[in-house]
Amino acid sequence: MITAYVKLEVRRTLRDTVFVVFGIGMPVLMYLLFTNLGTDDQEWRTTSMVGMAAYGALGAALSTGTGVAEDKSIGWLRQLRITPMSPRQVVTGRALTGSVIVLPSIAAVLAAGGLVNGVRLDAWQWAAVAVLLWLGALPFTLLGIGNGYRLSAQTTGVVNVACNLGLALVGGLWFPVELFPTWLRSLSAYTPANRFAELGRALTDGSARGLTAVAVLTVWALLFGAYAVISYRRSARTS
């Protein structure tokens, strides 16, 4: 039953023109602009590629919550509550949907890096970066879902955009955290977006920071997962 639910939601999302343009096309455009305006630094093109792929995945993951809020407004969630699926299964199904729809965003930015900007990685590095970013997007999917169950459709869209921009900026997905003031750099290290991008960068620059990133992201995933389940149950009582 969860599999059928996930397939339905994935098809609905990928048929949405707004999602395709802004969820997939915009991160690619931003990446190409940021890396080709007055610079020919190949290291920056690689670092920015990972950051923008993470940004695209972040936006796509959060957009799952916007769909949840819209479904709530048209009564779809009431229909789900009369099915045999438990609240945890419904949230899990939505989380799996979010995990699928982040893939096109990640793949598009990585393709732009390799085909347009000439980024060169070993085959296993390309695959590993894609997989780690795919898995690392889960906390943001859960955050978006929690917002969708708790808020109205219009409010969810605004809050998700604010979360997207705030997490991306503070997390250093657009600009290197080395350019931040000391206090902001320290704060950034505890944000899920910063550690999310760090998963991919640990592979491209050969560092060993990945284990810390996994630990931080796991904590955020648990917190956002609890938020999503609580929000779903609250929605069941009030709608």
Account of the protein in words:
The protein has 239 residues and is an all-alpha fold. It has one domain (2-238). The protein has eleven helices and no strands. The protein has helices spanning 2-14, 17-36, 42-74, 76-81, 87-115, 123-136, 138-150, 153-170, 182-188, 192-204, 210-238. α2 (17-36) runs antiparallel to α3 (42-74), α3 runs parallel beside α7 and α3 (42-74) packs across α10. The radius of gyration is 18 Å and the shape is globular. It starts with a helix and ends with a helix.
Shape: globular
Q: What is the overall number of helices? A: 11
What pattern of helices and strands is seen along the backbone? HHHHHHHHHHH
The portion of residues assigned to helices is over 70%
Write the layout of secondary structure elements.
Blueprint: H1 2-14, H2 17-36, H3 42-74, H4 76-81, H5 87-115, H6 123-136, H7 138-150, H8 153-170, H9 182-188, H10 192-204, H11 210-238
Helix pairs in contact: 1-5, 2-3, 2-5, 3-5, 3-7, 3-8, 3-10, 5-6, 5-7, 6-10, 7-8, 7-11, 10-11
Entry keywords:
mainly alpha; single chain; 11 helices; 239 residues
Describe, in short, the structure shown.
The protein is mainly alpha-helical and 239 residues long. The chain has one domain.
